[in-house]
Amino acid sequence: MGIKDQFQDKAQDLADRAGQAMGSKKDEARDRARQAQDKGQDTGQDETRRAQQEEQDRFDQDYDV
């Protein structure tokens, strides 16, 4: 195996490693984004539930008098 082949093999190895590293970073970023989105949806649902409860409480107060 000549020097040229060794350099090409090393370059291919480094390119493969870089591709794997980028793939794992993309997966991590996707997971973080999904978690943030899920957390945001949970917060939105809590706010909706709270608003509905407040509306029901006001309605009940109006008819308690």
Annotate the secondary structure layout:
Elements: H1 3-64
Main sheet specs: none
Envelope shape? rod-shaped
The class by helix and strand makeup works out as mainly alpha
Distance between the termini: 95 Å
- Counted by DSSP, the helix tally is 1
User: H/E series, N to C?
Assistant: H
The proportion of residues forming helix, as a percent range, comes to over 70%
Mean of the pLDDT scores?
83
- Radius of gyration using CA atoms only: 28 Å
Low-confidence parts lasting 5 or more residues at pLDDT below 50? none
Number of strands: 0
User: What share of the residues does DSSP label as strand, in percent?
Assistant: under 5%
Which characteristics define this entry?
mainly alpha
Can you offer a commentary on this structure?
By secondary structure, the chain is mainly α. The longest helix has 62 residues, at 3-64. The model has no long low-confidence stretch (mean pLDDT 83). It has 1 helix and no strands. The radius of gyration is 28 Å and the shape is rod-shaped.
